[in-house]
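dumping these here so i dont lose them again. two proteins, back to back, each one seq then structure tokens. dont judge the mess
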Amino acid sequence: MIRYALTRLSLLVLGLFVASALIFFTLRVLPGDVAQLIAGINAAPAQVAAIRERLGLNEPLPAQYLEWIGGVLRGDLGTSMLTGTPVATELAEKAQVTVPLGILSLTIALVVAVPLGVLSALRHRRASGTALSVGAQAIAAVPVVWAGMMLVIVFAVWLGWLPAQGFPRGGWERPDAALRSLLLPALTIGIVEGAMLMRFVRSATLQAAGEDFVRTAAAKGLTRTSALVRHGLPSVGLSIVTVLGLQIAGIVVGAVVIEQLFTLPGIGRMLVADVSNRDLPKVQGELLALTGFVLVVGFVVDLAHRLIDPRQREAA
């Protein structure tokens, strides 16, 4: 197990280095001049050249990359060209919105997907099971922006229960207000992602119901439902853990869109603004942090799968 973990960890580090190179050099292909943007449209060429010299933009791209990746290895993600603020500082500040939003969205997705997916599988020959399956497919096909707008109309405009946009200025100094601000965005992501996860739970449960050990347990006197719940659901958990890693990546992507829709001051909204402003050090730091998070989630899922499933350890 330790050898497997070290192998996966080395692949994680290699993936981060490859991702950092792709992020850095791809961003340099984008049109526009950061120095011109900082100096202004009517700035003299000499002033623009001085800014390029000060920011190190005249150096060869490989030298710029090595300088940046060296800073990353020291824990320095760079400094914003426009504000002069360390990227790590701004990421930590915006993460106070994005991380709780992701956790709340994931919790809602699991609460929706697991019980309804198992229930849909147990009643797959009945009208209620079919209705749950069709409903999940319909909700999973809904664009997250449209789902967010519908929830705003119902819960913010018609009922007036939750705020439609924004986040408290004091942040988490008022936990109740902060939580209410995140509830609608989290419901938007959680319901859509939960509908997609529910389909996997239903398929995994139906597959487990056909396994020999479930049929054997039923033959020994247990009802089919009891046999499935006692002996089949642990194997369903393996499928949920695997798919959950992909769902977390989907939640990260969904947060970028949802933070724009609900004007939340999170990492996703900051990333969109920095791309528009051509603040390359911030953009590459944010993208590297998000990529690293997704890779770490995949690493944890692989280890969890290895620990939960004894068959993989025996095969190794």
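---- next one ----
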Amino acid sequence: MQIQTPDWVKHAVFYQIFPDRFARSKQPRKRLLREARWEDWEAMPTLQGYKGGDLWGIMEQLDYIKDLGINAIYFTPIFQSASNHRYHTHDYYQVDPMLGGNPAFKELLDAAHERNIKVVLDGVFNHASRGFFFFHDILENGPHSPWVNWFKIEGWPLAPYTGELPANYVGWAGNRALPVFNHDNPEVREYIMEIAEYWMKFGIDGWRLDVPFEIKTPGFWQEFRERVKAINPDAYIVGEVWGDSREWLDGTQFDGVMNYLFAGPTIAFTAGDRVVLEQVQSRDYQPYPPLFAAEYGQKIEELLQLYPWEIQLTQLNLLASHDTARLITIAGGDQASVELATLLMLTFPGAPSIYYGDEVGLPGAIDPDSRRGFPLEANWNREIYQTHRQLIALRHTYPALRIGDYKILWARGELYIFARTFGNEELIIAVNAGTASAQVNLDVASLKTQPNQMLYGNAEFKWQGEGETQQLALTLPPRSGCIFG
């Protein structure tokens, strides 16, 4: 079987936005809440407080996003919900009125598409919420409810709000706020397929699927793919699977997953022993223990062999998300860790995904703290911002960085060097994660050309010899990286 994935994703740089925290509209809009008691934008986020970000606010910032070099946005959930993160869906057909409702989303979608920015929505199809109409009907009518087979009811009465009594229904991860759908019920399955189709027809460019590994019903994701791709063959389907994802990446289900198998080793190599363990230990990825270059190279080789190349090119590569602490906080505030990891992400096959605010050095411990309001410009880290802009621009300029082969040239001590090649375009990327300067004489007979233009960083290098004996003498300052082509 020929695996097919959407071509645009191979050339995409994603921006992940948590809608309540990115921007509040500054324009006069018809709002549902005029005197809303929002949490202070700059204050530490809380589990239940809203800061009042909305889709109009995002629309007003699209030029900032475009200027950064972003050409795709992944939104965490935007449907009506009684939670600031909106993973507790009330109504899959209504964009949350606090965000501006369906009309604001249509306006945003059109404005994004005018700028050639794709939009991917978060599909929370494993579970709904206590406020979801069909579940609410069961709460009101008990066994008489016509929707009783839509969920996994285990006994009566249901206890949705009190911890003293058994819930008597299955909630995701034991959480009674999140009743799990009965996906074996063909009506439930059809309902979810129709939601997916509805928003595809509305004009979105794909779905990110929340905890899709929880849905065990045979053929479910195969049918999901068929029905989504029937509306838009170029739609992107990306699953939130943290580990080995081969069973979903066989070409019949997802185009990619959130690539935590890239994030873990990349952080462990670039941040090393700076990693603050309590920020990572409760999560399903491994940014610890520290890795030397050889171990990092081995993990990257293994990752690149795990899936077909066509899938590798549409993986969603990330360093942080709403489910993790932010990289600068994981790295104990160390800026070089952020810049080196970002360099590795933006030169890796697959679509890089930047979590809003990471590009300006926004800190944040595990959630809810990693979901802070996007900072005022006065509080940006300008160096981290420029690093992101420069690296994203280089990725867009050189096809080799997006779809070229990936070959490790050197991985010893704390020095890691690899080449990305596409036709006659050859780039060499080097990262020195150590605290001392690194020198190397590198045998690079495998390259057709001698890349001799420094595109990023400030290493010193010179070429020696010809043909079979050509060598690259490279000196890289401590805690720095470079790209030449």
